TrEMBL record:
Biological process terms in GO annotation: monoatomic ion transport; sodium-independent organic anion transport
Predominant cellular place of this UniProt entry's protein: membrane
Family in the record: Belongs to the organo anion transporter (TC 2.A.60) family.
Protein name as it appears in the record: Solute carrier organic anion transporter family member
Residues in Kazal-like domain copies: 367-422
Source species of the chain: Accipiter nisus
Amino acid sequence: MKGDGIENPVFEPPSPDLRRQRRASPAGADAGVPEAEEGPCGWGRCAPKALQLCNNPEGYLAAYSLLAVFQDTCQIPGTSSTNFTCSASTKSSLPNYLYVFILGQLLLGVGGTPLYTLGTAFIDDSVPKHKSSLYIGIGYAMSLLGPAIGYVLGGQLLNVYIDIQIPESMKIDQDDPRWLGAWWIAFLACFFAIWLLIIPFTCFPKQLPGTAKIQAEKISETHNDGSEVLVETKNIGKSFKDFPVALLILLKNPVLMSLIIASSSEALVATGFATFLPKFIENQFGKTSSFSATLGGLVLIPAAALGQIISGILVSKCRMDCKSIIKFMIGTCSVALILNTVFLFAKCGNEPFAGVSETYNGTGTLYNLTAPCNANCRCLRSIYYPVCGRDEVQYFSPCFAGCSSHLFNNMKKTYHNCSCIGKPERENGSEDFLYEAVPGKCPTQCKFLPLFLTFFFFAVVFTFMAVTPTTVAILRCVPDKQRSFALGVQSVFLRLLGTIPGPILFGVAIDNSCTLWDINECKTKGACWVYDNERMAYLLMGISAACKIITIIFVVIAVWLYKPPPASAALSQKDLETVSAIHT
C-alpha cells in the first residue's frame, strides 16, 4: 500500500534484501545463524564449566591473539652468509636447502591464512557492528607481538653462534663478517608453542552465544551493485562449483578491488621496511647487525600495534559507516606520506673508506683497494675484515691497511706498523697512539638516529592506522556470505602485489646503492660490504612515497565509486519483524 507522500515499507512486498535480513532474524524459521549452532565451549560432550568463561568474544579474541603471536614469531631476522673457497663453493650442497626454506614459508602461509580470513570474519560475526573494528584492531595489534618477539629474540640469537659452541679451530667473534647466528632456535620454540595453542583453540563452537541476535540487528552496507541480491537469490557459496561465480562477483566489485590494491601497496612498503630497516640502521648510523635488528623491532612493532589499536578505537567510538571509514583512511595515508620525508633530512653520509670514498693519503685511485702502500702485501679481496685506523679512516682489512704486526692488549687486538695509515690530526698536537688500527668499522659521526626513529615511529603509526579500517571496509562492502572469501582474495593480492615483491624491490634498491661488492676467490660477486648511504635513503624514500601515492589514489577511487544500499533496505529489526508478521 502506498500513500500520497512517504512510502511505508511495512506494506511493501518483501524484497530480496528484506528476505535476507528476515532470515537473519532469530524469530524466523530459517534463521541465517541457527541458535543450535551456539553450543558450549568444549570438545563434544566434554564441556567443563571453567571453559564456559571463555565462550564469548573476549575469550575467542584472546585465543586468536595468542595463536597469531606465536605464528608470526617465526618471521625473525636472517643472518649474513659466510665466504667459501672456490673449490668448496662448487661442491657445496647448501644452495639446495633454499627449497627447504621456500617449502617452510609456503606451509607458514597455508597455516596462517585461515586464521586471518575465517578467524577475522568469525570475530565480525560475534560482536555488534560498531565494536567490530575495536576487536579486529586489538587482534591485529596482538598479532604484531609475534614479529616483535621475533625481532628481539632474533637479534639476541644472532649473538649466539649457529652451532652453539664455536669450534676451537675458528677464532671469530660477533664483529667478524663470517659470524653466523643461531637463527634456528626460534623456529623450534614456535613449533612447540603453536601446537600447544591449537588445542584450546579447537574448543569453540560454530557460533558464540548471542551471535544470532547480533546478526539480526545488523544493517547491510554492501556496495549497491546487485551482488548481494545475486548471492542471496542463487544461494552462491554453498558448493565448490560456485567458486568461479563467487570469485567473479568479488573481482567485479570496484570498491573491494580498489581497497585491495591500496592495501597491497601499503603491504609492499611495510614488508620492505620490516625486512631491510635493520640493514638501513646498520649502514646509516654505524650500528651492529644485532643491535639494528633489535632497534628496528622495538620501533616498527609497537608503532604498528599502536596504529591499529588507535584506528580501531576511533572507528568504533565514532560509529563510522563504510564510506566514513574509507575517508578516514585517506587522512591517515596522507599524514604518513608527509612523515616519510624523514629520509630527506635524517640521512647520514659515509665515513671515510680508503680505496672507496677516498684515496690512501693521496695515493692510489678511488674504487681501487690496491695502492702503492699495500701493493707488495698480496692482499685478498675475498677476505673482508674491516679495521679503523688512527686517522679515522676505515680499511678493507689489516692487509690493505699495510699492517705487518698485531698485539693483544687486555684481550683486545690492535694492529701496528701499518704503512697505509696516516698520522691523526689532533687539536692538542699529540700524536701518541697505543695502536695504529683496531678491528671493526670506524664509529659514525652521524647524530640523526634519535630524530630518524622519532619521525619513522609516527610514520608507521599512521601507516598502520589504515590497516584495521581497510579490513572493516572490506567486510562491509561485500555480501555477508562472501566476507571470509573477500578476505581470502585480499590475502592473495596482498602477497602477489605486496609482501612478495616488497622485499625484492627494496633489496634491488639497496643493492643499487652498493659501492663495494664482495668478490670471492672464484671472482663471483657476493654480498655488499659498503653502501652509498645518501643514495640508499633517496631510493627508499622514493619507493615509499610512490606506494603511498598509489594507496591514496585507489582509496579516493573507492570513496568515489562506493554506493550504499538504498534507504528502504536499511530497516530496523522491529520493522523487519513487523514485515515478517504481516506476510506470515
